[in-house]
């Protein structure tokens, strides 16, 4: 069974095929009739053991646009609260003849674990601090729309890199596509292993902004930190927030991205997030076409 467990495990050619297939689906979902019958006989379960707005809605919409039958499961309100295990939960859902599973879980490795124990295509919708592959794919799609090529493009990821699955998937994806990747944040939120991945590290926002063409800004993942070893949110906003005056002091226009949810006034000011140099809502729009492409290809359909 093919799965999408992380960007680390797929090739540059796989990524390019997904982006090209998403081009076709973006055209389809902008037609007056947005649905295609491609996954008419496929049943997909969206299993969300962790909160989500964008990813959950985007997968559901992608599945409906492909005419799949869709089951939505959230652990809140389910029998997980009565002590049922992950494997029992998933096997019970699969016994109702489910073909594909989209899973989000706070424990890294959950999608990989499921892929070894159940007979369905698994799509990782975010697992702990490990990976969020469809976010990286939609981010790459949005960058490609703006710049056409990744070759030599400078992308800097700002914020809480240590606890971010979006950062890791983006690093793998952008490097495979030929972009140069940097990160910028407080030293306590930058993991040491990035040196081995060939990622440039900045500790000063102004220097990072001067270097990059694209700034992908992340929030502080307070829910993943046992110890609050970060600056206060006020200090973070002051030293690491992306402010309008900072951007206006540059001799170029940096493209601003954010995977959401935004903590306005902390990592990103509203007059930046809502400005014409931000492509944040384009990222969300592109997520549906990219997820349609992933599901379409995993279901065994030939490249479009
Ligand atoms: N970008 C992202 O994963 O957002 P959600 O947590 O709302 O799904």
TrEMBL record:
Xref: InterPro entries: Asp/Orn_carbamoyltranf_P-bd, Asp/Orn_carbamoylTrfase, Asp/Orn_carbamoylTrfase_sf, Asp_carbamoyltransf, Asp_carbamoyltransf_Asp/Orn-bd
Keywords: Pyrimidine biosynthesis, Transferase
Positions with a binding annotation for carbamoyl phosphate: 54-55, 104, 132, 135, 260-261
Any one annotated GO CC term: cytosol
Taxonomic lineage: Bacteria, Pseudomonadati, Bacteroidota, Saprospiria, Saprospirales
Transmembrane segments: none
Known role: Catalyzes the condensation of carbamoyl phosphate and aspartate to form carbamoyl aspartate and inorganic phosphate, the committed step in the de novo pyrimidine nucleotide biosynthesis pathway.
Any single GO BP term: 'de novo' UMP biosynthetic process
Aspartate/ornithine carbamoyltransferase Asp/Orn-binding domain segment(s): 151-298
UniProt record similarity statement: Belongs to the aspartate/ornithine carbamoyltransferase superfamily. ATCase family.
Signal peptide: none
Protein name: Aspartate carbamoyltransferase
Pathway annotation: Pyrimidine metabolism; UMP biosynthesis via de novo pathway; (S)-dihydroorotate from bicarbonate: step 2/3
């Amino acid at each position: 069974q093919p799965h999408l467990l992380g960007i680390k495990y797929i090739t540059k050619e796989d990524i390019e095929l997904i982006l090209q297939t998403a081009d076709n689906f973006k055209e389809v979902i902008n037609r007056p009739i947005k649905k295609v019958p491609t996954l008419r006989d496929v049943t997909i379960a969206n299993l969300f053991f962790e909160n989500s707005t964008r990813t959950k809605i985007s997968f559901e919409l992608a599945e409906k646009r492909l005419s799949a039958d869709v089951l939505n499961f959230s652990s809140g309100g389910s029998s997980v609260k009565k002590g049922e295990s992950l494997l029992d939960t998933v096997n019970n859902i699969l016994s109702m003849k489910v073909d594909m599973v989209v899973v989000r879980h706070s424990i890294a490795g959950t999608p990989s674990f499921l892929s070894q124990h159940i007979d369905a295509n698994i799509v990782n919708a975010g697992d702990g601090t490990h990976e969020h592959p469809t976010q990286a794919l939609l981010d790459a799609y949005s960058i490609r729309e703006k710049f056409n090529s990744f070759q030599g493009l400078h992308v800097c990821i700002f914020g809480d890199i240590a606890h971010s699955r979006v950062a890791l998937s983006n690093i793998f994806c952008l490097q495979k596509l030929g972009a140069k990747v940097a990160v910028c944040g407080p030293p306590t939120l930058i993991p040491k292993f990035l040196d081995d991945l060939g990622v440039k590290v900045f500790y000063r926002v102004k220097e990072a902004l001067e270097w990059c063409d694209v700034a992908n800004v992340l929030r502080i993942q307070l829910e993943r930190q046992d110890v609050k070893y970060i600056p206060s949110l006020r200090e973070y906003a002051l030293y690491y927030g992306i402010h309008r005056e900072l951007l206006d002091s540059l001799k170029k226009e940096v493209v601003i991205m954010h995977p959401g949810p935004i903590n306005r006034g902390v990592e990103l000011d509203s007059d930046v997030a809502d400005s014409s140099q931000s492509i944040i809502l384009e990222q969300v729009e592109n997520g549906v076409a990219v997820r349609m492409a992933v599901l379409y290809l995993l279901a065994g359909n030939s490249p479009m």
